[in-house]
Amino acid sequence: MRGRLWAALTLLSVAVLSASAVTWVALQRVDARLQDLHQETLSQVAQAIDLSKRSSDLATTAPYLLNQRSNFLIEQEGAKLLTVLDRVRTDWPETRFDSAQDPQTPVSDILDSMTAGVSDLVAASRSLDTLQAQLRERTVVLGVLRNTATTATASPDGDDAARLIWWSLQSMNSDSLNAAYAGNLIGVGEEQRHYLRQREALNEFPLNAQQEVFLQQLEGAVWGVTGIFELRRLELSSNLEAQNALFRIRHDANRINELAGEYAGQAEAFLAGERVASSRTIWGARMSVAAISAVSLALAMTAAIYVSQYVTFNITRVSAAMVRLANGDRASALPRRLGGKDEIGDLFRSFRSFRANALRLDRSNRQLDQRNALFEKVFTNISDGIAIADATGRVTARNPAFLKILKLSDDSAEAASLVDWLHQGRFAEAAQGIDLRHDHRGHCELVSSDGQVLDIRASKLPDDGRVWLLADVTERRKMSDRLQQIDRIETLGKVAGDTAHDFANILSTIRTHAHLLETRGHGDASESLDAIGNAVDFGASLTDRLLAFARKQNLTPEVVDLSALIEGMADLVEIGLKPNVTLDIALPMMPLQVRVDPGQLESALLNLLLNANNAIEDVGHIKVTLDQLGTDQARILIEDDGHGMPLDVLDRAIEPFFTTREGEGGTGLGLSIVYGFIRQTGGHFNIESAAGHGTQIEVLLPLAVADQVHKHLPSANACLLVEDDPKTRASVEKLLVELGFDVTTSDTGHEAMMLLKHNQFDLLISDLDLGGTIDGLDLVEAAGWGPHHVKTIIMSGKSSAKKGVPEHTAFIEKPVTSNTLAQAL
């Protein structure tokens, strides 16, 4: 090794001398190369020119903003322009070639000016888009008015004076439309002055109701900050602002082009000076190389002994460390400070690389073991069954849940394919009807003989095998069936509501005639009248409950006497009870009043009583007790001697969608809805039950003070009655006559509108739905136009219609009686 090193040092001496000669020649080439390098510095100049071109492109692209038709696109394009400016600001070369130049370069000021111009252009474009959208809306409205005026002008029904007015209105509408398309502010002003002249001339002619409405709509579209004239002026002003911003952007782009040209000239002058200085430096380097060559020859012999010892010692250390590392000693290491930029240093670095690779390999093996353990844990504990099959369909691996879902024991015989596994369990019959080949993809469902639903999915593996995923979706399917059942119940509720509305009109007629016969004193007909009245009351009660079931009852809380409410629904409850089930109601002597929604409370109590009825299988008894608990609560106690509920069912009794009567149409929503309603009312809901010992439900409601009802009968007697149903109209008319009114009747909204316009009435009673374009609310609004105050009342068979009735208008729910009519008056 030493002999080789000495030979190498000898060659090194020769090489140094040769290097001196070669270096002399190389420096000549370096000089030429240096010229090329100086030329390459011109890239900065090219960069400045490129950034200048970007600024010019930005000035060319900026007008595109004015063609956008949404604020989102305007903001997006504006952000792109600002991004270009930021790139120009960031990439503009900072190298300075002239030390005498002002250090504060004006490029940042120009870019700030361009940024402000782009921001102004974006703002103007956004304003233009908003104004043009409003102009289009106003143009659509004016277009509709133009069609209305054209139709009215061409109508043969009107006289010449009316047509002349319509022509004037049509001309005014045309002026407003022309303003929307005027090319400048002067044109807009001319159209506005022409509009005002025609408007002033129109004041001399009387307008009918339709023309008044048309004029109001036209004035609303023309005047104000959102009128057609003002919007067009703002649009033209915004367009001028946008053009100004474009001019500023183009001007600043030209200034950046001028700066780029100046920068290129300075760079050229700088490079010329640098070439002269580099030539002088190379000449000095040549002289230095000659001296260094002589010194190197002397130093080479001096370093020979030192290098020999250095190489031998370090190679020995590296070889020993490599042997230890190969034997598995990962702690074997070499000092990092040893090893320079030579072959010995390469050996040191190679050893460290080998050691690092060995450590990484060990770490990768540990991570692979962890991942395998994690996969094994997931594969073992996942609730769905997983089976892995090869390309032939043979099952090569499965998790424990696979047998659990198929309801197979652990000692089941191993099967070749998934179909063979299915044939061993309860899905054997269902599996015969489908084709589950080894190349199956997608999913399918199997239903076992006991109703279990199995969802089977297959995914392809890279080796053409399959991963089979088996999931028990029985509960999910039951939930879907329950939701469909709820939809059917909601549909039934809608039908019940519509039926109750029609039935209410019939009951109104029966009730009115019964009342009239009674007040006229037909003594021998009193028994029949009592029967009619009782039947009507029972039918009205059924109607109210149908409306409550259909969720069409007004859900406004009011003060209710619980004794009267429970006693009133006794007949309805007894109809739904089983033949051998008895109902006992215990009410207190004094009234107990609470503030609650009566319809919702009746539905809740009916739900609880029917649940108690269902809990009794043969002969049983249901008891309802109403009493006062303390000083501020009323208690409703419902007890039955049915089969009761076990503890697990009691814990989930008020859970939504939980039911024990799936096959009998139960939805699992009854008790949850009752519980939510009682809690929202401010009360409490408790259930006590045990299997075989019946159920006790306690409902606690806060007591309230009943409101006083004041009845004020009118002193005036001129009444307009509007009802499209002849029987209801006749019965209500008789009630009004008995109260002393002079009644005028109408069966259509148009006829009633004309009567209100040409006559003076003190009272207006109208059905809400008149079957035409004009309804009862339109008549109420028309009654308020005149100088004379008119009392207004709306009738409807749907109590939910009260929500849309104005506050100053009374509401009567059909059927109408003398008492409800007097109370409304």
Automatic annotation (TrEMBL):
Residues 1-21 form the signal peptide. One of its GO terms (cellular component) is membrane. Residues 718-825 form the Response regulatory domain. InterPro entries: CheY-like_superfamily, HAMP_dom, HATPase_C_sf, HATPase_dom, His_kinase_dom, HisK_dim/P_dom, HisK_dim/P_sf, PAS. It holds the Pfam family PAS_7. SUPFAM superfamilies: ATPase domain of HSP90 chaperone/DNA topoisomerase II/histidine kinase, CheY-like, Homodimeric domain of signal transducing histidine kinase, PYP-like sensor domain (PAS domain). This is histidine kinase.
